[in-house]
């Protein structure tokens, strides 16, 4: 694909990745689980498997939006000594087709680059600058080649400073739309969608589920009138789910816990885990395509496919 | 001016005052930075619903909500609690020492003020289920009592470590009909319990109310909890005027998350002549071991740095990379790596002075009040008493001649109120264990325990 065309047609790499590869597969894993070296191989495997966007989790000690699977991954990554700097160095090294996004909690963004003081190992308490600042993180993220940021504990109301910094550096700040997001707030958030709308499939935390929730269908129906790319996450674990969700009107699916489960199962057997991750990504992508195909083939029952 | 005119002027002044108060309370932050609503999107509509309920029922007393709250706090809770002159302490410190006896509130701690207020509010809001986190178990027991009293189903999240060290409170919650859900993540204490309660709430938000236990969390919780707790300071104000004919020179309260602290201070924030001391847990040391992710203290106001935890921008114990560290205190109720954003703000502006005392000083404070006044205080409250000794204590101590005086010694003044936020029955096991390990000047002979 041509970069020039991309820039003219879409607002960002992230949006282009979804529109041009419709229906898109977005994959998530936690960086540093079980080590940053392994993460590099896993990301490459997901890229080969057909991911159109890859979210990398930067671990935070209090992940209130995560279910048990990703909590455990974050604990493994923290126990392995994963730091923001190590994370960015990994991203510096990565060369993937799929644009990369970082998913982390707001405090990690606020504290980054805050201290010129000696490292923590000397036993002293952290003494960052007077007020935490989001810009050093965004600058470093842009420098590392990341295309966007997702912050599960940063609702639109509090996102002003980060949004401004992201705009200055050409990064997308992806907002989450919950099943409870309605009315004026929904309009407000949809009017400032950046990259894509992350549609939370169900209330609660992240985690692989056995089926697609009815809330997903309701959410997609509610969002139909908004012409922005929509990707559905929270609970998506199989190709069939991907098919069903795309058929219901999504432009992409987001899968995390099901991939983290694979990594957890294989422990130190990096090669085997990478193979399975690639295969899983391919299965999910096929499922998404199946969903899109059924929309075009089965024209009588299904709504018209979106342009183009 | 006729009486009618006077009443009308008075009424319109009150109206203006209420209007200003409403505007301040609608703000999501304290000052420019502290507070806010840093939560997953799924919870935002519930917070807005709660803001609306806070404004209508709490600030405007719609449907007589606050009247019912005060009535129930009187009949069920036992308010008002006494303000008692502490005769021996007054003699020892050569000044007037008054104790606010929140330990006499139903349940044995100030926690019921907030728990009953929020469960009642949930009922007014039409919610069907209550969830809450608890550290030491005091907020959990208060919530379980309030939920039983108001006939609401209730589930409490409690860290596995805390369950093991606070068994009696677990039984009390069960007796009152609450489910107790153990949280095994991390160190299994308050921080993890809050995480898990937030996760439950993110799933059940449409019909469940989260009764947060301190002045922490996203707006409007810090203000809501403060307003339910501010009955403590309102009563002190009235009682001390009656007893001593004037406002105190200083008010001292322990601070973990800070609900008894703000509850005690709120009525005095605008009285510049009243000094406010928030006493934190210095634990065993003020240093943070960032490599281990450990702070052997919970002196957040004294040593913390700004960041976002559990929905609010506040002061935190964290590594320089932003990971929250495990706090520690001999008192489970102060053992938290964050603090209420309003306290962070008041410390930043200089209105509240943060101080801290270590585990030893708190244990001595515990023994001293038990021994001299016949009141067994909670280990949390014992920190306030430990500070009192450090700041004011020399008068009665002839054996050691002198002892290091705190820089605030003379600032405490002649008339001091200390909030005894809870009673110490729950802490007896811990105190016996910790006392045996140490050589504490105020402790009774340990052989008594061995016998």
UniProtKB/TrEMBL annotation, chain A:
The active site is at 55 (proton acceptor), 66 (proton acceptor). Signal peptide: none annotated. Residues 298-308 have a biased composition (Acidic residues). The keyword Lipid metabolism does not apply. Belongs to the TrpA family. Keywords: Amino-acid biosynthesis, Aromatic amino acid biosynthesis, Lyase, Tryptophan biosynthesis. One of its GO terms (cellular component) is cytosol. Tetramer of two alpha and two beta chains. Pathway: Amino-acid biosynthesis; L-tryptophan biosynthesis; L-tryptophan from chorismate: step 5/5. It catalyses: (1S,2R)-1-C-(indol-3-yl)glycerol 3-phosphate + L-serine = D-glyceraldehyde 3-phosphate + L-tryptophan + H2O. It is an enzyme of class 4 (lyase). This is Tryptophan synthase alpha chain. GO terms for molecular function: tryptophan synthase activity. Pfam families: Trp_syntA. Residues 285-308 are annotated as: Disordered. Its EC number is 4.2.1.20. The alpha subunit is responsible for the aldol cleavage of indoleglycerol phosphate to indole and glyceraldehyde 3-phosphate.
Automatic annotation (TrEMBL), chain B:
Gene3D superfamilies: 3.40.50.1100. Residues 1-35, 394-414 are annotated as: Disordered. GO terms for cellular component: cytoplasm. Residues 77-393 form the Tryptophan synthase beta chain-like PALP domain. GO terms for molecular function: tryptophan synthase activity. Its EC number is 4.2.1.20. Residues 1-26 have a biased composition (Basic and acidic residues). It catalyses: (1S,2R)-1-C-(indol-3-yl)glycerol 3-phosphate + L-serine = D-glyceraldehyde 3-phosphate + L-tryptophan + H2O. Pathway: Amino-acid biosynthesis; L-tryptophan biosynthesis; L-tryptophan from chorismate: step 5/5. InterPro entries: Trp_synth_b_CS, Trp_synth_beta, Trp_synth_beta/beta-like, TrpB-like_PALP, TrpB-like_PALP_sf. CDD domains: Trp-synth_B (cd06446). It comes from the Archaea. The modification N6-(pyridoxal phosphate)lysine is found at residue 111. Its cofactor is pyridoxal 5'-phosphate. Keywords: Amino-acid biosynthesis, Aromatic amino acid biosynthesis, Lyase, Pyridoxal phosphate, Tryptophan biosynthesis. SUPFAM superfamilies: Tryptophan synthase beta subunit-like PLP-dependent enzymes (SSF53686). The beta subunit is responsible for the synthesis of L-tryptophan from indole and L-serine. Belongs to the TrpB family. Tetramer of two alpha and two beta chains. This is Tryptophan synthase beta chain. It comes from Natronobacterium haloterrestre (Halobiforma haloterrestris).
């Amino acid at each position: 694909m041509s970069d020039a065309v991309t820039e003219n047609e879409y607002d960002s790499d992230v949006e282009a990745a979804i529109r041009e590869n419709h229906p898109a597969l977005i994959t998530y894993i936690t960086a540093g689980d079980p080590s940053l070296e392994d993460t590099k191989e896993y990301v490459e495997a997901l890229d080969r498997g057909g991911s159109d966007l890859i979210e990398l989790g930067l671990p935070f000690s209090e992940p209130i939006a995560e279910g048990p699977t990703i909590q455990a991954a974050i604990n493994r990554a923290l126990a392995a000594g994963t730091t923001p700097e190590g994370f960015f160095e990994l991203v510096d090294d990565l060369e993937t087709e799929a644009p990369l996004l970082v998913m982390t909690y707001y405090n990690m963004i606020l504290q980054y680059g805050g201290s010129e003081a000696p490292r923590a190992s000397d036993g002293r308490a952290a003494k960052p600058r007077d007020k935490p600042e989001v810009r050093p993180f965004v600058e470093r993220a842009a420098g590392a080649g990341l295309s966007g940021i997702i912050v599960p504990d940063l609702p639109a109301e509090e996102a002003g400073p980060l949004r401004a910094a992201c705009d200055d550096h050409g990064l997308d700040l992806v907002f989450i739309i919950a099943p409870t997001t309605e009315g004026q707030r929904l309009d407000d958030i949809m009017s400032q969608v950046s990259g894509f709308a992350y549609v939370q499939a169900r209330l609660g935390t992240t985690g692989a589920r056995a089926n697609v929730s009815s809330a997903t269908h309701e959410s997609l129906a509610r969002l139909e009138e908004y012409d922005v790319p929509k990707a559905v996450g929270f609970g998506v674990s199989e190709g069939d789910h991907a098919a069903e969700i795309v058929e219901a009107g999504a432009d992409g699916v987001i899968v995390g816990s099901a991939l983290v489960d694979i990594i957890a199962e294989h422990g130190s057997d990096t090669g085997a885990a990478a193979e399975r991750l690639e295969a899983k990504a391919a299965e999910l992508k096929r499922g998404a395509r199946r969903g899109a195909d059924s929309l075009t083939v089965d024209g009588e029952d299904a709504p018209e496919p979106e342009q183009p | 001016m006729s009486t009618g005119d006077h009443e009308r002027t008075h009424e319109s002044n009150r109206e203006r005052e209420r209007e200003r108060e409403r505007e301040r309370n609608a703000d999501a932050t304290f000052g420019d930075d502290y507070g806010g609503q840093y939560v997953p999107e799924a919870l935002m509509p519930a917070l807005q619903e709660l803001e609306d309920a806070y404004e209508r029922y709490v600030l405007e007393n719609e449907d007589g909500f606050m009247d019912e709250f005060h009535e129930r706090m009187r009949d069920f809770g036992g308010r008002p609690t006494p303000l008692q002159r502490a005769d021996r302490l007054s003699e020892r410190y050569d000044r007037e020492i008054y104790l606010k006896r929140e330990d006499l509130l139903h349940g044995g701690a100030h926690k019921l003020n907030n728990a009953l207020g929020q469960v009642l509010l949930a009922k007014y809001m039409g919610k069907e289920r209550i969830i809450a986190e608890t550290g030491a178990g005091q907020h959990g027991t208060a919530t379980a009592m309030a939920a039983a009293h108001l006939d609401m189903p209730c589930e409490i999240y409690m860290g596995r470590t805390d369950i093991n060290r606070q068994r009696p409170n677990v039984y009390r919650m069960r007796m009152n009909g609450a489910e107790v859900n153990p949280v095994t993540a991390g160190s299994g204490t308050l921080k993890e319990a809050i995480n898990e309660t937030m996760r439950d709430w993110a799933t059940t938000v449409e019909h469940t109310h989260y009764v947060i236990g301190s002045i922490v969390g996203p707006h409007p919780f810090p203000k809501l909890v403060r307003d339910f707790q501010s009955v403590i300071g309102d009563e002190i104000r009235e009682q001390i005027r009656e007893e001593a004919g004037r406002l105190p020179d200083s008010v001292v309260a322990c601070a973990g998350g800070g609900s008894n602290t703000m509850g005690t201070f709120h009525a005095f924030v605008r009285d510049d002549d009243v000094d406010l001391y928030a006493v934190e847990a210095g634990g065993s040391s003020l240093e943070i071991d960032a490599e281990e992710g450990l702070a052997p203290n919970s002196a957040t106001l004294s040593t913390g740095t700004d960041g976002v935890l559990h929905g609010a921008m506040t002061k935190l114990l964290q590594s320089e990379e932003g990971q929250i560290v495990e706090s520690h205190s001999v008192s489970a109720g102060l053992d938290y790596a964050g603090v209420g954003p309003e306290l962070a703000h008041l410390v930043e502006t200089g209105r509240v002075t943060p101080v801290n005392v270590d585990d030893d000083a708190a244990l001595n404070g515990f023994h001293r009040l038990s021994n001299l006044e016949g009141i067994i205080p909670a280990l949390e409250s014992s920190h306030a008493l430990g500070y009192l000794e450090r700041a004011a204590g020399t008068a009665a101590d002839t054996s050691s001649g002198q002892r290091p005086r705190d820089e605030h010694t003379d600032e405490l003044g002649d008339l001091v109120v200390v909030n005894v936020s809870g009673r110490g029955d729950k802490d007896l096991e811990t105190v016996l264990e910790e006392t045996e390990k140490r050589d504490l000047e105020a402790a009774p002979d340990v052989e008594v325990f061995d016998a």
